[in-house]
Amino acid sequence: MDLKGRDFLTLKDFSADEIQYMVDVAAYFKKKKKAGEPHDICRGKNVALIFEKTSTRTRCSFEVAARDLGMGATYLDPKSSQIGKKESTADTARVLCSMFDGIEYRGFAQSNVEELAKYSKVPVWNGLTNEYHPTQMLADLLTIEEVFGSCKGLKLAYMGDARYNMANSLMILCSKMGMHFAAGAPKEYFPDPELVKTCEGYCKESGGSILLTEDAFEAAKDADIIYTDVWVSMGEPDEVWEKRIKDLSPYKVRKELFEVAKKSAIFLHCLPAFHDLKTEIGKEMGEKYNFTELEVTDEVFEAPYSHVFQEAENRMHTIKAVMAVTLSEVKMD
Ligand code: CP
Ligand code: NVA
After folding, report:
1. 308-327 vs 57-68: helix axis angle to the nearest 10?
2. Which of 25, 113, 270, 275 is buried most, with the most CB atoms less than 10 Å from its CB?
3. pLDDT along the chain (333 residues), means of 10
């Protein structure tokens, strides 16, 4: 499998075998890391990490993974660089690719990361856009395979805003990998019909399926994985909170949904999560709109079947795999 030189912008660009290969490489690196065995196969290279939105997991994953692979990493944000205000994406790409071996980008429109990739001579990795979050998908797949052994035929039920980066990406992942994707959401939060059509095409090949329903219990029925994300994403205005809470409350992930899922079902969330009031925004919104938890109850978040911190750790191993396979040749011993 040769992915050297490839961009990583959305999973639409990768076959099921290529996706599985990246996850296998991640599992290999995870084992090496746990055994304390060096795996600095990208020694001497350098990567640029552009973050136009905030991050904990993705930034730390890229930085730690780069170090483990023997690379230097430079973090750039719009405040401390010329990006956006004084320099276009195309010019930024041409400057950075003359100094770095790979560029990560987290920002707003998918077209920005695509523009960056168009003008860059080195691989560009999407660290999250409004439309897609592909590195998160590899971490989710690794976690699912660690728990269930394999992913084929499993049902993943996504609850909440199904038109944004997480649901879009999970629908692509499931349909590519032969999984059954169900979204529980109000109709106006269903994914873009064009993307659904594309994913239905993938399902024909993989044996997967897609169900969009306004009934949270129908979505959760017999699910192996129940997944949710924040109801208001980064970059969205404060004004949307009130309507979101009203519209998405029936899709809050709670114990009752697990009662109709498979007995072995697990809970996943990309994080960060509003499962209590121990955050600044959670507290402010909780007091304003009178709630104590949002997209998931604290009970589910803290339950033994919640694998969210394993999933978060897997961000690092999978991001390491993405950088390694696109920058170097990986030999798994
Ligand atoms: N899941 C995720 O992307 O987390 P961060 O926003 O902390 O990077
Ligand atoms: N939908 C969320 C995902 C965070 C990882 C956001 O874009 O803020």
Report:
1. 50
2. 113
3. 97 98 98 98 98 97 98 94 91 97 98 98 98 98 98 98 98 98 98 98 98 98 98 95 96 98 98 94 90 94 98 98 97 92
Best residue among 161, 166, 169, 315 to mutate for probing ligand 2, ranked by most atoms within 8 Å of CB: 166
CA-atom Rg of the chain in angstroms: 19
- Helix boundaries (H) for the chain: 16-34, 57-68, 89-96, 110-119, 134-148, 165-177, 193-206, 216-220, 241-248, 255-260, 280-289, 298-301, 308-327
Q: Cα-Cα-Cα-Cα dihedral of 135, 141, 147, 149, to 10°?
A: -140
Q: Same structural domain for residues 199 and 323?
A: no
Integer angstrom CA distances of residue 166 from 163, 183, 191:
8, 11, 10
Is residue 4 domain-resident? no
Pocket test of ligand 1: the residue of 50, 54, 58 to mutate, having most ligand atoms within 8 Å of its CB, is 58
pLDDT for 78 equals 85
User: d(Cα 293, Cα 285) in Å, to the nearest integer?
Assistant: 10
Query: What angle, rounded to 10 degrees, do the helices at 134-148 and 16-34 form?
Result: 70
Give me the number of domains the chain comprises.
2
* Closest ligand 1 atom, residue 234 Cα: 6
Position 124 scores a pLDDT of 98
pTM given for the model:
0.98
